[in-house]
Amino acid sequence: MGAACACYAGLPGKRQGAAGRDQLPARRRLFELRQKCFYRNFGISQKFILQKCQNMPTRTPPERLRGRGADIASRSGAADDARYSRNRRRGKRPPGGLNFQGGFSMNAADTGFILICAALVMFMTPGLALFYGGMVRAKNVLGTVMHSMVILGVVSIVWAVIGYTLSFGSDIGGLIGGMDFFGLNGVGLEPKEGVDNLPHLAFMVFQCMFAVITPALITGAFAERIKFTGFLLFTVLWVIFVYSPMCHWVWGGGWLAGLGALDFAGGAVVHMSSAASALACAIYLGKRSGYGKQPFMPHNLPLTVLGAAILWFGWFGFNAGSALAANGLAASAFTTTHMAAAAAAIGWMVVEWIHRGKPTTLGFVSGAVAGLVAITPAAGFVTVMPAIVIGLLAGGICYGGVLLKHLFGYDDSLDVVGIHGLGGTWGALATGLFATTVVNEAGSNGLFYGNPGQLWIQFVSVVATWAFCFVMTMILLKIVDVVCGIRVSSEDENKGLDVSQHSEVGYQL
């Protein structure tokens, strides 16, 4: 301890001698003595510490993007400025970590928040596996669960190698990203241009989880009848040729972003794209054997309810994380997400009660998912009361959408089109009605706030998304069918995918 005090005595700006030390509070003296001992024990010289303090660059408070894909940045606000100034007066370092330019710019709280949100979105994919797995027949449960889990592995690799750069690389004609980040080249710990509060890797992995769950949603349309090899090839091609261009159009600086389309967390990029592709798959693969002649009842509703609960939980990371910062916008998106889901679950239940005479558990959780889908594009642009309206109407709209497959005669096994297609479409259009810059100054006002043009822009984005994804998916399905075949034989379908594709059974009864 004596050696530590001797080392400490020469530091500038500190009181010298016993009298000076006595003026310090006891707890502060103890802290400083421990700090000195730490420096001495680990061989950190006083000269080194002083040199680092003198060479530390000045930092200005970072600008924050308000919402994913926004091109308009704004200052953190008076509270952040005051905290920054107060910390400087106290000699504290700004929050965050070193970037490669030698300054402190990234925000540690935002980074931690986004990584947690990425984990929540990742958890949605196993939740979707359970949600879908409970709704198929028992002989297909493992095959259905396998689809989502394999996508988690395959798409992650595809995203790292080429998907990310096609989505967020330098813009090429408003249609696709360049090869700047091929193989994650240049994607490291430094901030990404335009998102200066996060390490580039954190932004990339957050986006990766969206790329994972989107093709997983499609699997509900061709459940119980797709060939596993064809499914794998289709998934890889779909991420490259459908998801990545759509992502670039909206979030990567493409033509829809330039048009001013609002999509906070994926109404077009995730839900409409997967639904349009699901419709193409349902039409191309045809109906399941026995469809319309025998009932295809869910074999395990508790499994489906558990999956829906996980989806609801993970959706908070999905939408709130799209603020790309731990700020008020994230809190707003979190709240609107929950309220819309609750309202939609009630809306679906009431409509079903009136139509069928009794409410069902499957209907309630399907309604909740419909509300989560509908609020996804609007979560960071609307206030709470409009979010409740969006959710309430989504419950009724998506309930009616599920009935459409019987009217038009296509076999969408698990109602991807009815829930994600109509829910995402309604959510995108509702954003054009209820969006307000009071919530997000980087967005635009909607029709009800004096800007009717925004509704037209949202309509254009809806039409473009459905048309592009449907046509491209049809082309990819034909290619896959020629290369390796895409539908199982009638014999394998009757056995069930668990046995015919994976030589396993879900239940030993």
UniProtKB/TrEMBL annotation:
It is a multi-pass membrane protein. GO terms for molecular function: ammonium channel activity. Residues 59-98 are annotated as: Disordered. One of its GO terms (cellular component) is plasma membrane. Belongs to the ammonia transporter channel (TC 1.A.11.2) family. Keywords: Ammonia transport, Cell membrane, Membrane, Transmembrane, Transmembrane helix, Transport. InterPro entries: Ammonium/urea_transptr, Ammonium_transpt, Ammonium_transpt_CS, NH4_transpt_AmtB-like_dom. Gene3D superfamilies: Ammonium transporter AmtB like domains. Pfam families: Ammonium_transp. Its main location: membrane. The chain crosses the membrane at residues 113-133, 145-166, 201-223, 230-252, 264-285, 297-318, 324-350, 362-381, 387-404, 416-435, 455-477. Coiled coil: none annotated. It comes from hydrocarbon metagenome. PROSITE patterns: AMMONIUM_TRANSP (PS01219). This is Ammonium transporter. It is found in: Cell membrane. Residues 113-507 form the Ammonium transporter AmtB-like domain.
